[in-house]
């Protein structure tokens, strides 16, 4: 039901207007220089890496510094990128460990019933009987389905699977998720 959009680490937080929609979305993290021509390895953090093309303006680091993408190519599970004006390994090395962003306004639309992670994190979770369980603070990506980590006002975190049987409704405008609480999902019931 959900697709990743941005990492959940607070150091990667995007600039967000009051509507909870970020102005920028992280699409990669620059790792290490590669070769002698100013290329740098980029860890891919987007489900849509094919949308990144030479000539695009990307925004790098916490200041969202605009940089024009000169070249991009796949390598193993990541990419190798070169920015205009970055032609040496030393220049590429100055970008190491910085996040790469794109404007959120240009993100691809998702099919009905699918959401970006940044849209889900922060939602209040209620049971179908109206009981507030807490707030979604993280999404764990597992092989079968995602798992929502809910922080209650007190007590241990609650793990809720992202399945049609459990997730009844997601209302982004109200900032809430309604779930069907299956037996054993609450930490106190697991004993």
Number of helices: 2
Residue share in β-strands: 35-45%
Query: How many structurally independent domains?
Result: 2
Q: Tell me the helix content.
A: under 10%
SSE layout and pairings?
Layout: E1 2-3, E2 24-34, E3 39-44, E4 57-60, E5 65-75, E6 78-83, H1 89-93, E7 99-103, E8 115-116, H2 117-120, E9 124-127, E10 132-141, E11 146-151, E12 158-161, E13 167-171, E14 176-179
Parallel strand pairs: 1-8, 9-14
Antiparallel strand pairs: 2-3, 2-7, 3-6, 4-5, 4-7, 5-6, 9-10, 10-11, 11-12, 13-14
Explain this structure to me?
The structure is a single chain. The protein has 191 residues and is mainly beta. It has two domains: 2-106, Beta Barrel (Elongation Factor Tu (Ef-tu), domain 3), CATH 2.40.30; 121-190, PRC-barrel domain (SH3 type barrels). The chain is 5% helix and 42% strand. It has two helices and 14 strands; from the N terminus they run ββββββαββαββββββ. It has helices spanning 89-93, 117-120, and strands spanning 2-3, 24-34, 39-44, 57-60, 65-75, 78-83, 99-103, 115-116, 124-127, 132-141, 146-151, 158-161, 167-171, 176-179. The strands form three sheets. It has a six-stranded antiparallel beta barrel with strand order 2-3-6-5-4-7. Strands 12-11-10-9-14-13 form a six-stranded mixed β-sheet, with no helix packed on it. The longest helix has 5 residues, at 89-93. The protein is elongated, with a radius of gyration of 19 Å. Residues 1-18 have low confidence and may be disordered.
């Amino acid at each position: 039901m959900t697709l990743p959009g941005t990492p959940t680490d607070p150091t990667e937080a995007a600039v967000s207007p009051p509507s909870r929609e970020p102005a920028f979305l992280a699409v990669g993290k620059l790792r290490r220089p590669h070769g002698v021509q100013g290329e740098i390895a980029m860890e891919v953090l987007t489900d849509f890496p094919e949308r990144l093309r030479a000539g695009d303006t990307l925004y790098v680091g916490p200041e969202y510094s605009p940089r024009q993408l000169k070249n991009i190519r796949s390598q193993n599970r990541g990419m190798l990128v070169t920015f205009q004006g970055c032609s040496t390994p030393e220049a590429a090395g100055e970008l190491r460990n910085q996040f790469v962003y794109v404007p959120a306004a240009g993100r691809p639309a998702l099919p009905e019933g699918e959401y970006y992670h940044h849209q889900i994190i922060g939602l209040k979770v209620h049971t179908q009987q109206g009981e507030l369980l807490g707030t979604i603070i993280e999404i764990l990506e597992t092989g079968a389905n995602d798992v929502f980590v809910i922080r209650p006002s007190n007590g241990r975190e609650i793990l809720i699977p992202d399945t049609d049987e459990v997730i009844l409704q997601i209302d982004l405008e109200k900032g809430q998720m309604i779930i069907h609480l299956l037996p054993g999902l609450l930490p106190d019931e697991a004993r």
